[in-house]
Amino acid sequence: MKFGIIISKDNPAGENIKTSLLSMYDFNKINNNFENINVIEIQSTNINDKQINLYTIDENCVYFDNSDNLDAKILIFATWHKSKSGEKTLTVHPTGNYDEANYGGLSKQFSKVPAILFKEMYNKLSENAKNSIFEASMEATHHGPKTEKPSLFIEIGSLESEWKNKDAGNIIAKTIYESISDYNEAKCEVAIGIGGMHYCNNFNKIMTQTDIAISHMCPKYNVKFLNKEMINDMITATYENVSFLLLDWKGLSGEEKAHLKPILEILNIEWKKVKQVKN
User: What share of the chain is helix, strand, coil (3-state, %, to 5)?
Assistant: First the structure.
C-alpha cells in the first residue's frame, strides 16, 4: 500500500517535520516529480511492504485541490496548528466543513477518513509525546482540502517557536512512520463522534481506552448544522464501515440535544452515549 506525506513549501512546521523524516529514516529521490518537485520515497525494510512518498507542494495544504492525483492510497498532511491560546499541542484530525468553506475544501462536504489509521496515529502520538512539553490531542473535523482519497492532518502547534521545535518535528515524524508501519485494515468498530468541544477530550479517551476507532467528529458548536443528509455524508466519507454514532451527551446543551433527537429517530443507524462504551 502506498502512503503520501504532503508538506507545504515554506511552512515552518512542515519543513521541520520533513527535516526530521529525512534525518531519522532512509529516503532517496526517485525519478519522478509532482508539480516540478522531486518525489522522495522511503526505502526501508521495517515498514511491512508499505511505500511512503514524500511530496512538497507550493500552496497551503488546506487549499491543495490536486491531492487525489498523487500516487498514494492514503494521504497524510503534515503541517502547523494555530490557536489563540498558544498552547504547545500536537494534533491529528480529519477534514471537512459543516458550514461554509472559509479555509479550503467545499461547503458542507467532508473528506474520506481512514478511521483505523486515525486511531493508530492518535494513540502513537499520545505515547510519543508523553515525556515532552507537548500535549497530544485529536481535533474535530474542520477546514480543507476536500479529498476523495482517505486523508488526515497531523500538526505542530501553536506558535512559531513550536513549529520549529526539533523535538516536535521528531515526535511527529516518528508517529507518522510508526503508524504507517503498524497499520493494517483489521476489522474494528468505527463510530462517528458528535458533541463535546473542539479538542474532543472524551473522544480522545475512547481512542486510547477502547477498541473503537472514531472517524469524523462534530463538536457541539457545529451541531446546529447537522441534518440527516449531513450525518449520512459523514458516514459515507469514512473509509471503513461505520457501526454507530457516538454521542458525547454530557457535552451537548439542551438546545443541541433537542436539535439532534428528531434526526437520530429517522436515521437508520444505532447510536450510543460515550458512557455506554467507556471502559
Answer: 35, 30, 35
The span from the CA of 161 to the CA of 171, in Å, is 15
- Note the pLDDT tens digit of each residue in 179-234: 999 999 888 999 999 999 999 999 999 999 999 999 999 999 999 999 999 999 99
Asked whether the beta carbons of 146 and 192 are under 8 A apart, the reply is: no
How many Cβ atoms are within 10 Å of 109's Cβ, its own excluded? Answer: 16
DSSP string, 19-38: HHHHHHS-EEEEEEEETTEE
Identify the structural domains of the chain with CATH numbers, from first to last.
2-182 (3.40.630.50), 190-277 (3.40.50.10700)
Helix orientation angle between 115-128 and 166-182, rounded to the nearest 10 degrees: 140
3-state secondary structure of 208: helix
Quote the pTM value: 0.96
Coil vs helix vs strand at 206: helix
CA distances from 174 to 21, 107, 170, 246, 275 (A): 8, 33, 6, 30, 32
Query: Which amino acid, 146?
Result: K
What secondary structure letter does DSSP report for 200? -
Percent of residues, the chain, with pLDDT higher than 90: 86
Residues forming a β-bridge with 182? none
